[in-house]
Amino acid sequence: MRSTVCALVALSLASASAFHLPLALPHRAPARARLSAARPTPRAARPAPPSISMMAEERTVRAPIFDEICEQTGITLPRYMMEVSRANPEMRDLESLMSGIQQACKTIANLVDRAALTGMTGYVGGGGSVNVQGEEQMQLDVITNDVLKRALKFTGKVGVIASEEEDKPVFNRDAYQVPGVESKYQDILADIGTKYVTVFDPLDGSSNVDANIPTGTIFGVYEEADSMENCMVGDDDAIDSSCVFNTLQPGTALVASGYCLYSSSCMFVFTVGNGVNGFTYDRAIGEFVLTHPNIQVPKRGKIYSFNEANRWLWDVPLQEYITSLQTGENEAKVQYSARYIGSMVGDVHRTLLYGGIFGYPSDTKNVDGKLRLLYEAAPMALLMEQAGGMALTGKTRILDLPPQSVHQRVPFLAGSVDDVLEMKSYYDASEDASIIRRCLDRLDAKVSERAKDGLAKLKPKK
């Protein structure tokens, strides 16, 4: 299986090279063709999502401006990242990392397209194989996880990888190897480049592949903590639990996040802190091309997206809010339409473009929801806020939540700022003590003392 995966990655790289057209620039594009992915400016009439102002104080990302655009290729993802790194020299390492992620997504798109032809549908071994979540693994869950791990490993910019399909974060010792010296590793304190912690869900909605329903890859990128010395790393590169704390960063620490949607077309949508941009995969040239610059969520939509089979298990405030959308007795005095795919990437993508609200809420069976905070909820929340929307658990901003474990689950309700704030008003009016207690508990991260002791240091074997 591994040789097949490596061959597919190599094929993807070769295809991109073979079809890459020279960047001939026949003329200077008119002023209207100057595309700038600037951070959306909040309108005075609407409350600005907290993240935009908070992140601006901590880190300002200058947006690239394209004076000239090739008529044949448009603005490709590699060129976009090159311009981002030129405008923000401190982000040069992120350019290499994003290159690895996009190449992995091209490979996964090919795997999903051909799944029925290559026999990669169905469960691993016919069923019975489960991941750390207790969920049965599809064949593509395992393969796509390996594709992403290897693509990230080869960039040399990723020190730690956390995935839905891995019990613990995986340490990439090759990121610290001294160039040209076998079996000798750098001390991270003396390392020249930035190393990242990358989290991902390799194939969200994988059970939908057999039915040709949209699926996707979700990813988030954090910078490593001060140091990664003194970490116990096993022979299989599994990180000791005392070092997991390095991975447990709140969403406010994300430097990039995004998703790749595998549907009628393949789209790569992401942010590096200067707005949200969407790139469509042009198979003719083997590149993602900018087609959706500066995506902004409408202030209010007309669509709600929930699994209503669980309606009577939801919190009462949410039941009342959804009823108001169905009857038109809401702030907009408009009856909403229901749309639900059952694949987070697909539902979030539609919400980004059309507005409204998408939710995977708490219920009596899953009081903390089912979406994982670290590699699903937080990366998508950053995207939503960067596009001018909001993402809450019901009462609490998702990006403010400190992860308590790698696979912690949280409720997720996100979309147009007016819709989300109206939903929140129902929770704010509730005096249900259990709801209030859950919200407070999520903000009070209780990480083990052993993990705290390992916060500062992680180090590969020498």
Task: Give a quick set of tags describing it.
single chain, 462 residues, alpha+beta, 8-stranded mixed β-sheet, 12 helices, disordered C terminus
Rg measurement, Å: 22 Å
Pattern of helices and strands = HHHHHHEEEEEEEEEHEHEEHEEEHHH
Q: Gap between N and C termini, in Å?
A: 29 Å
- Summing up helix and strand content along with how strands pair, one would put the structural category as alpha+beta
Overall geometric form:
globular
Q: Can you count the helices?
A: 12
Could you list the spans in which at least 5 consecutive residues all have pLDDT below 50?
1-57, 175-179, 181-193, 229-239, 447-462
List the helices and strands and how they pair.
Layout: H1 2-19, H2 50-58, H3 77-87, H4 92-113, H5 115-118, H6 139-155, E1 158-163, E2 170-171, E3 196-204, E4 215-223, E5 254-262, E6 266-271, E7 276-282, E8 287-295, E9 303-305, H7 316-327, E10 337-338, H8 344-354, E11 357-360, E12 371-372, H9 373-386, E13 390-392, E14 409-410, E15 412-415, H10 417-429, H11 433-443, H12 449-453
Parallel strand pairs: 1-3, 9-10, 9-11
Antiparallel strand pairs: 1-2, 3-4, 4-5, 5-6, 6-7, 7-8, 11-15, 12-14, 13-15
Architecture overview:
32% of the residues lie in helices and 17% in strands. It has 462 residues and is of the alpha+beta class. Helix 1 packs across helix 6. Residues 1-57, 175-179, 181-193, 229-239 and 447-462 have low confidence and may be disordered.
Summarize the structure.
The protein has helices at 2-19, 50-58, 77-87, 92-113, 115-118, 139-155, 316-327, 344-354, 373-386, 417-429, 433-443, 449-453, and strands spanning 158-163, 170-171, 196-204, 215-223, 254-262, 266-271, 276-282, 287-295, 303-305, 337-338, 357-360, 371-372, 390-392, 409-410, 412-415.
